[in-house]
Amino acid sequence: MRSLISALLRRRCVRFTTQQCRRSLSSHSKHALVDDPNNVVLVEGKASSRTAVLNRPSVLNALNTSTGVRLTELYKSWEDDPNIGFVALKGSGRAFSAGGDVVAIYNLIKEGKLEGCKEFFRTLYSFIYLLGTYLKPHDLELVWHTVGAKATKEKAERHINGEV
């Protein structure tokens, strides 16, 4: 049975290009537009709500400096807008967010760009502080998968309500 499964998996990989079957550990996208500062966070809007969509699916929406800057700009502008009553954050692709882009940090350290590392942490921790002190109702999309963790909105709601 194992040999049959192995053969099917190999056959499946042959159909796709080698690039699609191989996982990449690089934080640099093969698509230039994905890491464009204007495209790392997309915006969806409905009436009086806004949703920020992390748009780096090739790296499981890992947060980098440009993502943190864009999220901070959006959240501050939405907080000041009286027409917006609710804000949400979600990820594109199969992951909500893998957290900080550790590969990018590693490369900055390796290249001796410590100021870039400081800016990364300054930006992301400032955004986290903004989230913690945000005045409007906001939600992180809890239907997500990250490395080693799974959560669903229903499980989170049961936990919040004390049913778990």
Shape: globular
Helix content: 40-55%
Helix-strand makeup class = alpha/beta
Radius of gyration: 19 Å
Major β-sheet annotation: 4 strands, mixed
What string, H for helix and E for strand, traces the elements in order? Answer: HHEEHEHHEEEH
Order of neighbouring strands in the sheet with most strands = 1-2-3-4
- Any low-confidence stretches, pLDDT <50, length ≥5? 11-34, 142-154
Count the beta strands. 6
Fraction in beta strands: 15-25%
Rounded to the nearest angstrom, the distance between the terminal CA atoms is 39 Å
Mean pLDDT: 75
Q: How many helical elements?
A: 6
Pathway: Amino-acid degradation; L-valine degradation
Protein name: 3-hydroxyisobutyryl-CoA hydrolase
Domain Enoyl-CoA hydratase/isomerase: 50-138
EC number: 3.1.2.4
Map the helices and strands.
Blueprint: H1 2-15, H2 18-21, E1 41-46, E2 49-54, H3 65-80, E3 86-91, H4 102-110, H5 114-132, E4 138-140, E5 144-146, E6 149-151, H6 153-160
Parallel strand pairs: 2-3, 3-4
Antiparallel strand pairs: 1-2, 5-6
Helix pairs in contact: 3-5
